[in-house]
Amino acid sequence: MIDPQSNGTVGFHLFFEPEGGLKKELSEIIEKLAKEYDGPVFTPHVTLLARIPSDSESAPVPLEAIIEKSQSLAKSLSPFTLTLGRTSTENAYFKALYLHIKEQTEMRVLHAQALEHFFMDDEAPYLPHLSLLYGKYPQEQKEVTIESLVLPTEHSFVVKSLYLYQTEGEVHDWKLIQEFPFGE
Questions:
Q1: Helices (H), 1-138
Q2: Model-level pTM greater than 0.70?
Q3: What structural domains does the chain harbor?
Q4: How many whole angstroms separate alpha carbon 22 and alpha carbon 117?
Q5: In 57-91, which positions are buried (b, 16+ CB within 10 angstroms) versus exposed (e)?
Q6: How many whole angstroms separate alpha carbon 151 and alpha carbon 49?
Q7: Do 183 and 75 touch, CB atoms closer than 8 A?
Q8: pLDDT tens, 130-157?
């Protein structure tokens, strides 16, 4: 079972990342909030699949196999557009403050495809979003922050690659393994 209050994670994650000016703008917001809240800095991303296990009860899964499956999944995808939506907060470490993704149905289809590709089941309901702040903070403080921010809601970006990260431990331990352009 996933502990929504935990600041650590396991395995590997597949992300979609914005590019160009929007990535820069989101990175600046994330850095500003991290400084203000004394929280971690991370690359702006939308998680497609979380906690891909690097080992199972029966045998370890070599990194090469995870890379091959990620590349195979990326080959099956074509570029598409995601749009940032309304702001939300939760009492969960990785969803302290985030923007919804408007293409919920499309993202849920892609998520189901990724689950099937990696022979995984969901532990929690999938909510496509782009986090701006990680951590555990009072709701009132987050609400004041939202009112003071100018956020890029309604901004869209084209997704052309899948990013594989090793996500063992806390955010500062995360490591980009490889980017997989779609169709290649």
A1: 20-37, 63-75, 104-117
A2: yes
A3: 12-181 (3.90.1140.10)
A4: 30
A5: eeeebeeeebeebbeebbeebeeeebebbebebbe
A6: 25
A7: yes
A8: 999 999 999 999 999 999 999 999 999 9
